[in-house]
Automatic annotation (TrEMBL):
Identification of the protein by name: Sema domain-containing protein
Residue span(s) of domain Sema: 1-378
GO terms, biological process: axon guidance; neural crest cell migration; positive regulation of cell migration; semaphorin-plexin signaling pathway
Gene3D superfamilies in alphabetical order: ligand-binding face of the semaphorins, domain 2, YVTN repeat-like/Quinoprotein amine dehydrogenase
Keywords: Disulfide bond, Glycoprotein
Cellular component GO terms held in the UniProt record: extracellular space; plasma membrane
GO molecular function terms attached to this record: chemorepellent activity; semaphorin receptor binding
Organism field: Scyliorhinus torazame
Family annotation (PROSITE patterns): SEMA
Pfam family, one: Sema
PANTHER family in alphabetical order: SEMAPHORIN, SEMAPHORIN-3D
Length: 453
């Protein structure tokens, strides 16, 4: 069952009340079991959701529901074709415009699913990014009330090996969109883990929307039968290109997906997979954890201005209740250095972190698990000691030496009161003129001060 919530009169102190006049079935809007993977986004009064349609979680579907009463179109993925979704576990769904033409607006959703090796019949796990057009209303004679613009591509997160054999992190666990000045091009951060029970590892890979769109604009994959491998489709592609959103700008005769020719509908029904995968920026992860006693589960990212540039600070949740505060620093030789700023034990016990949200305005991080909800500051500069050298060695983009203490970095402050070196962590270059009897040493902070609700 789905219910609607009314907010109180004051936005800063909302009072939540159930609207008992607005009740409807929650099937395909939320999971039957809270343990099942689920993703959704509400945009333009429509709910786009990825969830299992049965109690046992055997029938995953990505759907659109709700909407204004005069314009409701319930759409879902095709159940009859396992090419579309196969034991999918949904991770995230986002509304991302592709161009300045609103007819091109799409919903991108991320998930992982099973795929069978035709040579061995063994199942593997692939991570995927898929998309559908917002103005998709299904087909006229085929794919009725089904997506007619559904396409998916593989997300690859791997570490190149010295012998040419890559180490793959195949299981997508979480996705975070870091928004930029261009709303069409957010940066996509993904947390991945290995599928092997012997080799245990996690990685963070970063993708550009340009690379994701390039995959969807590239060749389609083709599979002649269940015992054949996916190969590049070299046949004729019908018009309009399958996966294109209907728009009067492109073709005045195609006003909606119901105007698509039958050959377009038939093509996309059996060719929803793109042949070329999406690879991470720089061709490798920005952060890895291998052979440790935990796996990464959640990620949020904050774009921070520092004295020597801009940095994306990652907050990574684990399955043992800890949070890693990490920054990837690119050196002059374009080699990225992984810097773990803090490792915080958030919960008393090893409770897996299930949700993380960030508030840039409040400068707060919110962390959820089965044990409760935790609130903590994004920066705690006072823990880095009482000397300039200690503050610089921390390499925290949030913190700088202000002449008296290690405090929150303020870009507008005067040069002599903002001593910081995130890229190199060199206290000598920053604190050479200060008369301090201090040792220069590196340290690792494990303290944590949080509010528990």
């Amino acid at each position: 069952m789905c219910v609607f919530i009314e907010l109180g009169p004051r936005a800063e102190e909302p009072v939540f009340q159930l609207d008992l006049q607005s009740l409807e079935s929650g099937r395909l809007k939320c999971p039957f079991d809270p343990q099942q993977h689920f993703a959704s986004v509400l945009t333009g009064e429509y709910l786009y959701a990825g969830a299992a349609s049965d109690f046992h979680g055997r029938d995953p579907a990505f759907t659109r529901s709700l909407g204004p009463p005069s314009n409701q179109y319930y759409i879902r993925t095709d159940l009859s074709e396992h090419y579309w979704l196969n034991e999918a576990k949904f991770i995230g769904a986002f509304s991302i415009p592709d161009t300045y033409n609103t007819d091109d607006d799409k919903i991108y959703f991320f998930f992982r699913e099973a795929t069978e090796d035709s040579s061995t019949s063994d199942k593997s796990i692939f991570s995927r990014v898929a998309r559908v057009c917002k103005n998709d209303i299904g087909g006229q004679r085929s794919l009725i009330n089904k997506w007619t613009t559904f396409l998916k591509a593989r997300l690859v997160c791997s570490v190149p090996g010295p012998d040419g054999v890559d180490t793959y992190f195949d299981e997508l666990q979480d996705v975070f969109l870091l928004h930029t000045k261009d709303e069409r091009n957010p940066v996509v951060y993904g947390v991945f883990t290995t599928t092997s029970s012997i080799f245990k590892g996690s990685a963070v890979c970063v993708y550009s929307m340009a690379d994701i769109r390039a995959s969807f604009n590239g060749p389609y994959a083709h599979k002649e039968g269940p015992d054949h491998r996916w190969v590049q489709y070299d046949g004729r592609i019908p018009y309009p290109r399958p996966g294109t959103c209907p728009s009067k700008t492109y073709d005045p005769l195609i006003k909606s997906t119901k105007d698509f020719p039958d050959e377009v509908i038939s093509f996309i029904r059996y060719h929803p997979v793109m042949y070329k995968a999406v690879y991470p920026m720089r061709g490798r992860p920005v952060f890895t954890r291998i052979n440790v006693d935990y796996r990464l589960t959640q990620i949020v990212v904050h774009h921070v201005m520092a004295e020597d540039g801009h940095y994306d600070v990652m907050f990574l949740g684990t399955d043992i209740g800890t949070v890693l505060k990490v920054v990837s620093v690119t050196k002059e030789n374009l080699i990225a250095e992984e810097v773990v700023l803090e490792e915080l034990q958030v919960f008393k016990g090893p409770s897996p972190i299930l949700n993380m949200e960030i508030s840039s305005k409040q400068q707060q991080l919110y962390i959820g698990s089965r044990d409760g909800l935790v609130q903590m500051w994004l920066h705690r500069c006072d823990i880095y000691g009482q000397a300039c050298a200690e503050c610089c060695l921390a390499r925290d983009p949030y913190c700088a030496w202000d002449g008296a203490s290690c405090s929150r970095y303020a870009p507008a402050s005067k040069r002599r009161t903002r001593r910081q070196d995130v890229k190199h962590g060199d206290p000598i270059s920053q604190c050479w003129d200060l008369e301090e009897s201090e040792c220069f040493y590196t340290f690792f902070c494990r303290s944590c001060f949080v509010r528990v609700f």
